[in-house]
Design goal:
heterodimer, A: alpha+beta, four-stranded mixed sheet, about 30% strand, globular, B: about 290 residues, alpha+beta, Alpha-Beta Plaits, four-stranded antiparallel sheet, 9 helices, about 30% helix
Chain lengths: ~80, ~290
Amino acid sequence: MAEFVDITDVVCPVTFVKVKVALEELDDGQELQIRLNGGEPVQNVPRSIKEEGHQVLKLTQNEDGTYNLLVRKEGD
Amino acid sequence: MPPDYKALKNGGFMRQVQKNCFSLRLKVVGGNLTAEQLCVIAEISRKYGRGTVHLTSRQGVEIPFIKLDDVERVRTELAEGGVDTGVCGPRVRTVTACQGRAICPGGCIETYPLAEAISERYFGRALPHKFKFGVVGCVNNCLKAEENDIGIKGGYAVSWLPEKCTLCGVCVPACRENAIAIDGGGLSMDDTRCNHCGRCVKSCPFDAWSGEPVYLLSFGGTFGNLIAKGEAILPILHTEEEIFRASDAALAFFDQYGKPGERFRVSIEREGWASFQKYITEAVYG
């Protein structure tokens, strides 16, 4: 079962900061489910996670217009 | 005999309000200077100016308050320190550039080598009026390509690699042009909407989008007395060779049709955009 973090209550750049903090809590290979808003967060957060070297797995849109992003923590 | 102000200006020494003082424009390509060059500039400014420099609107550096009597000494000492003087007047000016993909995560093309190559080929070339080139690394366009006589903007020509794609969905909202859709039938892309920003390539977690660096050119931009945006009259270009065929032709056109003291755009407008477009297109594609 993936850990979960909701970043719909914050704006850039805190969105990514919250994700980073959540990822730091995990072991390599563990998955994190992120709930994020459309617009800027969904355009930028997946790319930032990729640039940090983690594996983005799946993005799905929720009925309320938010998104769920599933990522896997990768080691250095 | 009075000093030849015109010759001084052409060589980058610009007459100031203060008698016998000149603001010396230096040659800077793409806003890129080494620490050593900065030290030399600082030293010259302290020794011959008033210990200040001015950063120009086109990424250049000027050292004000150089005295007429010191002009030759300053030129020599700068050259010895690896700093060239700039130009002014009716000729090809400083080539500007952002840092491009060598530095910036948004960049799609290598801007510095391209700016250097353009400067090498055209810098200082005499024309009917001033002529500006600018190179930007991506469609974010931080350095405003379209305000130049010739603007070169980098982008990606993208292609989807189905064998690598997991249909994860990240690229769909990453694309601000809504060119990408995923439905029951898989992924589809509307090429007519693509603006070559490369966000799909940069965001894809599985490298299922590949991006080939390409160039979007604009012509006839000007942002002084006359304000007008450069026009994109060519399809995307794929090689530096094509860029140079286009810009060689643009400069030849200006030489042929430009009247002294008129900007490139004015010459284009008098001859007509359609005939200019034909002229450049034939030069690029034969």
